[in-house]
Amino acid sequence: MKSYLVSKGDFLELIDGMIENGKEVVAPVKQENQANFKRIKSTKDILWSGPQTVISPKGFVFPQEEELIEYEVEDGIWVGSKVEAKSTVLLGIHPCDINGIALLDKVFAEKNLDENYLKKRESATIIGVECLTPCSPESFCYRKGSVLPWDGFDLFLTDVGDDFFVEVGSEAGKTLISGISRKTIQSDAKKLKKIREKRDNLFAKKQRKLKPKLEELPKLLKENYDSPIWDERGAKCFGCGSCNMVCPTCYCFDVRDCVEINLKKGSRSRFWDGCMLTDFTRIASGEIFREERGARLRHRTNRKDFYLFEKWGRTFCTGCGRCGKACLTKIVDPLDIENELYGRKGRR
Amino acid sequence: MTVYKPEIAKIKKVEQLTKTERLFDIELLSGKSLDHQPGQFVEVYVFGVGEAPISISSEPSKQPTFQLCVRAVGNVTNALHNKRAGEKIGIRGPYGKGFEYEYFIGKDILFIAGGLGLAPLRSFIRAVLNSRGDYGKVYILYGARRPQELLFRDELKEWEARKDVEYHATVDVGDETWQGNVGVITTLFPDIRFDPRKTQAIIIGPPVMYRFVINELKNRRVPDENIWISLERKMKCGVGKCGHCQINNVYVCQEGPVFNYKQIKSLPEAI
Asked: ipTM of this model?
């Protein structure tokens, strides 16, 4: 799609105007000493360049808790689907998280459509922003080819001084800035190219290296299915599931019932679940199909860079680095695991 | 109507099969047929308690009624056991891939059921016996822990009496009522003669049973592609999203629960 220039002042005024008109705008803001996505009252609150938010913005399209059905049991039984969505602007989304949402788009729209997700997704306008410096020592987005969005944004902003260079990803995005956008000329594209070259160099220098080639990760993980690494790292794992919770591409969920005290009304809701938790594969008879923590770590890593990578032709780890940061025993970071597997292979 | 909304169904009849298993006749209030394949499952919803994946025990039919054989083992199945005829539950499905029984037409079939594995297998057995002429030889091997735990006892007698079915049963632990074979299911194998090339072996039972039975079949030179199994996993959403039933890269609720052995023998997490 096309690109435009928009002055920063005009853009912020546009967003502030939307907020004044009651539009829900969500952006990274400071919370305690950390960053978090929250509804903002003014663009002044936005953290444009870090620190990285503790959790990804996926909760705005795939909430941590979400009602799926509601029911009433009186004389008869009534059951209704519950699909709720609020028009929301997700602003200041980094490429790793845009790509995370783009991947969720694929899985929830595959075959049996998940309308609960899709409706929320349709109602969200995603305005991304390019990262010009790494947001955390744990991030490795550059190594996962995820410093720019693959898909799934309405607008994507790059700070080029007084202006934002804006890539348009959808008709809705184009319409949004139609009143303030200016055409780009060749020198703007050149300027952008320079900024990105500088960014690439900086990220290449600062971010940890991925030793195997990105496209060879499925093969590496396949060959190392029985590697002792899984049990070695698994022995240190607390099975807390933090890595699942902070991940922009983890989408497994549990479903639970909630009954009102009169026992006549109730609902079923889904909640984020995590494959690193013991109960994830526990069935009623007590059997746990993936009981070893090492086997669960392998499953999680394989989902990111083997199973789903092979299926969709793209890594399901966008290199945000949140899991590595959240992990209490520092065993879960996919880049670390993959480098170790690659290193051991070389020594053999 | 989303994929997560159950259809309302009525329990028509409840029959106690053993101490822990009951057979439920269930009818969709819509009057529609479930239109299932043998081996498929439904998500049964007990309002206020939750859902459980239960395989369908009755043969495919155009009628709105179908049967589920349920062991009381967890929250949902225990709550279901407290339900009486006339009460309502929710049903989603049928889900997963079952047996495409047209494929088996003209072939010899060796059914091998262990314990509650007879519940899903009965659907296929009944479909085959209902059009018996379409198939070659039919063998049924069934094993349970104790004689009192044998399911569908009236039907077992019918199968035993039929001249066109070779039926063998065994129990792990016998008692004074039991005249038949005692031992695990593989102890029945020396009694049967079948043509390994022409026979399709269909196994459903507890996870531990598969390895032993498959070994036995391999000893008898049954090729991998003639072996079919149904795998139990934690099917939760039924629509390939929630992740709980995954075996390596395979979502059991989508690509299973019925698998050809050739298809899954390379999956380390499968058996």
From this structure: 0.93
Residue A325 DSSP SS3: helix
Kind plus residue range of the DSSP H or E element containing A270? strand A265-272
When pLDDT is averaged across residues A289-299 and rounded to a whole number, the result is: 97
Domain B7-95 is classified in which CATH homologous superfamily? Answer: Translation factors (2.40.30.10)
Integer Cα distance of B153 and B171 in angstroms = 14
Q: Identify the CATH number of the domain defined by range B101-230.
A: 3.40.50.80
Please give the model's pTM, rounded to 2 decimal places. 0.95
Assigned token pair, B245:
């039933």
Question: A251 to chain B: which residues are within 8 Å by CB?
Answer: 241, 243
Rounded to whole angstroms, the Cα distance separating A271 from A67 reads 9
Sign of the CA dihedral A136, A140, A312, B250? negative
Rounded alpha-carbon distances, angstroms, from residue B118 to A60, A122, B135: 45, 46, 20
pLDDT in tens, A57-72: 999 999 999 999 999 9
Residues of A in contact with B52 (CB under 8 A): 284
Beta carbons within 8 Å of B57's beta carbon, 6+ residues apart: B23, B67, B68, B69, B119, B120, B122, B123
* pLDDT at A68 (0 to 100): 97
- The verdict on a CB contact (< 8 Å) between B241 and A302 is no
The pLDDT tens digits of the residues spanning A128-170 come to 999 999 999 999 999 999 999 999 999 999 999 999 999 999 9
Q: Read out DSSP for B217-263?
A: HHHTT--GGGEEEE------SSSS-S-TTEETTEEHHHH-BEEEHHH
Percent pLDDT > 90 in chain B is 96
Closest alpha carbon within chain A to B6: A79
Residue A55 has φ and ψ, to the nearest 5°, of -115, 160
The per-residue pLDDT for range B25-45, each reduced to its tens digit, is 999 999 999 999 999 999 999
Q: Give the helix/strand (H/E) hosting B182.
A: strand B181-182
Those of residues 60-79 in B touching chain A at CB distance below 8 A are: 73-77
Q: Which residues pair with B53 in a beta bridge?
A: B43
Domain ranges within chain B, ordered by starting residue? 7-95, 101-230
